[in-house]
Amino acid sequence: MKFIVNSAYLLKQLSNINGVITTNPVVPILENFLFELDKGSLTVTASDLQTSMITELQVESKEKGSIAVPARILLDTLKNLPEQPVTFSIDESTYSVEIISDNGRYKLSGENATDFPKVPTVSNDFSAEISSEVLGRAVNNTIFATSNDELRPAMTGVYINLGDKNTAFVATDGHRLVRYRRTDVKSDNGNAIIIPRKALNLLKTTLPLENTDVSIDFN
User: Fold this and answer.
1) For the chain, what is the mean pLDDT?
2) Does a structural domain hold residue 187?
3) Is residue 150 helix, strand or coil?
4) What is the chain's Cα-based Rg?
5) Is 65 left (phi over 0), alpha (psi -120 to 50) or beta?
6) Which residue ranges in the chain fall short of pLDDT 70?
């Protein structure tokens, strides 16, 4: 399995999802990125079982395959490279990864991709669209009031109630309560969901600078 990708482009995409990965996870393979190559498309997944982030990159390749690659070592390697095309050569029988650049060759030990936990697929039982600007403001105006008490998981996230007249974002830690309401965000088939604080913090860092629509799907 082999592909070519710009080092800076890959570093940026991996940095966007690296925040999901925790130190000493319950499942050790979650210290890795999951690489899934399908010809010119590389899908990379990071997960801590509760929160998962997926990014898709365009690469040069005519091959297919998958492998789990150690996240910290890969990021450290890419950070020390000037921007340039790099070639990933992966032996799926030994799970060895070789990164070939103008500066030299770097070898990493990967893991079997089949051992990486499956990320649940979300069926579109309910879907809503909200602008990234509005979502960013809503998160900033509520997330500070969420609780750190893991024994009360409902309070460790932001409650989003999508209605036909307005949408409310609510957070509380048991001592204070914040509600942020938008009349310009509506849903004909109203529904509600609690999104964990960690997921929202990660989302804030990856929202695009330009205003665009963000789709929220859940079942």
Assistant:
1) 93
2) yes
3) coil
4) 20
5) left
6) 124
